[in-house]
Known about the structure:
Mean pLDDT of chain B: 85
Mean pLDDT of chain A: 84
CATH topology of chain A: MetI-like fold
Largest interface: A-B, 95 and 93 residues
Strand order of the largest sheet of chain B: 2-3
Oligomer: heterotrimer
Distance between the termini of chain A: 28 Å
CATH superfamily of chain A: MetI-like
Number of strands of chain B: 3
Low-confidence stretches of chain A: none
Strand content of chain B: under 5%
Amino acid sequence: MKKRFNKSALIMGLYILFLMLPIYWLINMSLKTNNEILGTFSLWPQNLTFANYMVIFTDPSWYWGYINSIIYVVMNTVISLAVALPAAYAFSRYNFMGDKHLFFWLLTNRMAPPAVFALPFFQLYSSVGLFDTHIAVALAHTLFNVPLAVWILEGFMRGVPKEIDETAYIDGYGFFRFFAKIFTPLIASGIGVAAFFCFMFSWVELLLSRTLTAVDAKSIAATMTRTVSASGLDWGVLSAAGVLTIIPGALVIYFVRHHIAKGFALGRV
Amino acid sequence: MKTVNQKAWFLVLPVLLLVGFSAVIPLMTVVNYSVQDTFGNNVFYWVGLEWFEEILHSERMHNALGRQVIFTTIIMLIEIPLGIFISLHMPQKGVWASVCLVLIALPLLIPWNVVGTIWQIFGRIDIGLLGYSLNALGIDYNYVQNATAAWITIVIMDVWHWTSLVVLLCYAGLQSIPDAYYQAAKIDQASRWNVFRYIELPKMMGVLLIASLLRFMDSFMIYTEPFVLTGGGPGNVTTFLSIDLVKMAIGQFDLGPAAAFSLIYFLTILLISWVFYTIMTNIDKREGI
Amino acid sequence: MAKITLSNLAHSYLPNPQKDADYALKKLNHVWEDGAAYALLGPSGCGKSTLLNIISGLLTPSEGQIFFNEQDVTHADTADRNIAQVFQFPVVYDTMTVKQNLAFPLKNRGVDAQYIEARVNEIAQMIGMQDVLNNKAQGLTADAKQKISLGRGMVREDVNAILFDEPLTVIDPHMKWELRTQLKALHQQLEHTMIYVTHDQTEALTFADKVVVMYDGKVVQIGTPKQLFEQPEHTFVGYFIGSPGMNLLPAKIEGSIALINGTAIELGADYNNPTGKVEIGVRPEFCSFSDDGSGLMVKINRVEDVGRHKIVRTQFAGINLNIIAPSSARIPADTCHVKFDLAAINVYVDGWRIEAQQTKHEAAL
């Protein structure tokens, strides 16, 4: 027993080291001045500086990147869940004409490469005057988040016995009251998991958010890639910006840590 | 048993409208472009399937597809077994389990361009720990100029980024195995390998298929990370399908070929995913008995 | 096959158990005789699974030792104890065929292939699965899967003991009866030491030679089904075994007379003057209506006709008292007098049965 635990601990330790080392290096870079980064090679900052972070917190073109990203990510999560909930309920409870084909067609959208949609999206949203708005990115991201949310929620809903619906209807609940009062609390963890994934995939995406925004709704990811080319590689600020993008994700993981394992199985274990 | 109820269509209507707006209309645009050509000024004329023929025979597409297939194969061959292996060594409960879960999930929530940036910095020979150390050890490593080094870096980056997804899925599968199975195996004197082969692997099959499907799809669409890291270079050696497509569509504005390219690309993914999906639903059904 | 000795055994799931209540299994000395069939009976949470897991080696006891014959196996691995165990829910290897499942424990021990073939066929016959030997285990019903588990438990002939952990929970009622009978027959045939954990008294009483009753982490009585019925050593045994359980009446005892809420009852033996919480226990089967007005005057609440007999629910001064009457018996209306069979009265002090003085006296002579 003891011996096996140590072996496992060693393997886990090595794997986590492998995962953390590049992140550590990014943090290390973000706390150095550019002179130090390019001048000397050191495993930790010799002259600790927060100047890189101050640049981001004081320059609107930087910190608005974060705000814009958060805005469209939240919008996307809300929209995705709002439309996915009733649809997932329909798929988990009823047979109707073309249901299987519809379900698969929905999933195919999760399989669509964003690169395929980048240009058409640009033209579509430009033509309806939504280019460079938060809602444009939020809607574009529903392309892959809605199918995923439907899929996850359907898995969780299938785990709720049908008898609960029937009992509620017999007890005189209407559909909407039943859905809000009884059903939603039962699949709360599923909703949490779906929200987590919507947040995750919207937060990490670059191609569409960059294509659909220019100034007003520019995402932090786009800000980062553009600044790289413009300011001649300011490694310190770039690293600091990178570190700051990791924080929201880390916070979200921390809050859902008890549900991660089941969540990643998408309710299908 | 599910009841037949055509009114359920009302419940899926919002999804239909939304996805219709954000998927069908753009896809129609793509189809429209794929069969037309233009001399500018928004004047288009019908060219039939010419673009498809051109793309299907173009060496550029073949090369990008070849690179893509090799890349996807390599990372799946590494990530799936490695993910299973790591998940078998995860602590089962307690504080350490939470700590490991949080740390392992972290790379999954880093924006993809930042993943590229992290490895761009980490691998550089002047300021990166990896590049600097390797060169200090006398190994010639420079992912900006050397094709092999670029490939290795991209593969390691993807393993770094996505193995955790496989780990977490497998871990969830393992958690669902009742203790009695392990106890019975002990009593039956099953070897470690047999426990894995006859208890753990069968229970993980479902989640492993999900993992494979997700990894296949996402690696086949990979764009951001290699774009930030190598920009598709040196030369074209890391130009995967999406990178090539974006170059063609937005960089060169070759709308016709890009559209034909898009459709072929999409259909390829669909076809392979459909195979996965069919296997998966069959397994779901079998377990449902 | 082996005799299993538990010596000062105790277990707590807490790292530093202080008081009695911290122990899931309180200090215990017991010898499981070689070749006997035991049932371990008790309500859920009484520590029976803990005890079973200690015997099978899945748990290491926090105190005391366990011996197989003369060998100390307290810290030995499950695999080294050479035991078989059948769990509450079917544990089968889904991807294997029924045959491979049954052969698995033998194959892992490097047994000769010819012997395996013969033995597997023999076991398949016993559990009635010879027709589906080459089917995958996955598609089978829960019943069939549990039969495979039972078969895998019995496939090895040289095991020290076979442990059953509520093995019939998932089985259909009519199959339960059949499997239990089969197990009993197998025990007589194979003469393995068998320990059968259950919370179902019928299962325990029909299967076992000796029943070990556990309550709150303690073994409260070990005995044959007859002993458990006639002389429950603890009020819990009286209450838990039997349907309905033993009637318990708080009493004050003076010599051979019991005063129950003021009414005097003859006990038929001298119990001295016990102090503490004194109760007398009489099984409903040994209560009857008296015609002469002697005994306790009870109020009849309800009569349940269960076919073979009638259960009469009555109350005496607020204490429930059940009587089993023959189905032909005429039940008086409203109130009546109840008398007890003298030989069937047990006296309990603080929950534990005490012997009558007289009997002790006689035994001493």
